[in-house]
Write a structure and sequence with these properties.
It is built from 17 helices and eight strands. With 339 residues, it is of the alpha/beta class. The protein has a single domain (25-338), classed as TIM Barrel, CATH 3.20.20. It has an eight-stranded parallel beta sheet with strand order 1-2-3-4-5-6-7-8. α8 links the parallel β3 and β4. Bound molecules: adenine and zinc ion. Residues 19, 21, 171, 199, 222, 280 line the site of zinc ion (ZN). Residues 19, 21, 171, 199, 222, 280 line the site of zinc ion.
Length: 339
């Protein structure tokens, strides 16, 4: 079978990843290795059994398995190894910059110290810079199914690390846990000089996207698919240049979209939205960033211009400085000129 037409260009373009849960990059092989190293029992006999369990019909099905998988992460070395494995894989996809999410409450609630998580992830990031030249930032996500009080406590734990954090985010079970619940948490994060992002409109209604903008004052929107149901909201997102971190394979696996051929990415680009392509939880959804581009291509909904715009958007929507953005955009231009 021939390669899809855009394969070579997808591989050649340097990219940023803006929506990646580091716990969601835990591949079954590493899960087994860490289970053995830490003497933790897992309910699977082998990696094939783990992969066979990854069938989801909605977000919560996935979250239950994802939080259980994270139970093998115990030590600073584990968090280092997790991050290092992601960056090795990201380098193979020509990711040159990554702004990665982590869920500290998933770990602190199991008795793992906040500092252990931070030190392990930061050392993985330092290795990525040295080994691959990848720049990276950390975004601390609050679990929205937990209380405002728990989020405020987590933010207080993070305060001494604020210089090592790029921002805060909001993830986990969306429906029933609207952004409004975290208004005061995000206001405090802003006081600490942290950027703000939030998952909104993945399964939740357009009203949640409005709340993320109006109450959490987000700098970027994670997913945002259901914003497409509200034309005035789409116009607002477009005119404000709000970046959306879209995750096509995740959307398919979690039944946010029925069919990749009907994914909203083309409509988002046509509406002038700063849409980007990301992997979300690649170990669970069957692919890293390039796999996501290939899936769009295979479904017949990725044009060459669309691909280039999406990749440019990954830097435009990042939290890099203007100088860094223009450096990366020029690198993209060089690849296009040679293509
Ligand atoms: N945590 C990890 N992946 C997530 C997703 N796609 N939505 C909400 N929370 C998440
Ligand atoms: Zn996500």
């Amino acid at each position: 079978m021939n390669d899809p037409p855009l394969s070579a260009l997808i591989a050649a373009l340097p990219k940023a990843e803006l929506h990646l849960h580091i716990e969601g990059s835990l591949e079954p092989e590493l899960m087994f290795a860490l289970a053995q190293r830490n003497n933790v029992a897992i309910p699977y006999a082998n990696v094939e059994e783990v992969r066979a369990a990854y069938h989801f019909s909605r977000l919560q099905d996935f979250l239950d398995i994802y939080y259980a998988g994270a139970n093998v992460l115990r030590t600073q070395q584990d968090f280092h190894d997790l991050a290092a494995a992601y960056f090795d894989r990201a380098a193979a996809d020509n990711i040159v910059h990554a702004e990665i999410f982590f869920d500290p409450q998933t770990h602190t609630d199991r008795g793992i110290a906040f500092d252990v998580v931070m030190r392990g992830l930061l050392s993985g990031m330092a290795e990525a810079r040295e080994k691959h030249g990848i720049s990276a930032g950390l975004i601390l996500c609050f679990l929205r199914h937990l209380s405002e009080e728990a989020a405020l406590e987590t933010l207080a734990q993070a305060e001494p690390w604020a210089d090592h954090l790029m921002g805060v985010g909001l993830d986990s079970s969306e429906v029933g846990h609207p952004p409004a619940k975290f208004t005061r948490v995000f206001a405090r994060a802003a006081q600490l000089g942290l950027r703000r992002v939030a998952h909104a409109g993945e399964e939740g209604p357009p009203a949640y996207v409005h709340e993320a903008l109006d109450l959490l004052h987000v700098d970027r929107l994670d997913h945002g698919n259901r914003a497409m149901e509200d034309p005035a909201l789409v116009a607002r997102l477009a005119s404000s240049g709000m970046a959306l971190t879209v995750c096509p394979l995740s959307n398919l696996k979690l039944c946010v979209v029925e069919d990749m051929a009907r994914h909203p990415i083309p409509a988002m680009l046509s509406a002038g939205l700063v849409a980007t392509v990301n992997s979300d939880d690649p170990a669970y959804f069957g692919g890293y960033v390039n796999d996501n581009f290939h899936a769009l291509d295979k479904a017949g909904i990725l044009t060459r211009d669309g691909l280039i715009q999406l990749v440019r958007n990954s830097f435009i929507g990042s939290f890099l400085s203007d100088e860094e953005k223009s450096h990366h955009l020029k690198e993209i231009d060089k690849i296009i000129d040679d293509d």
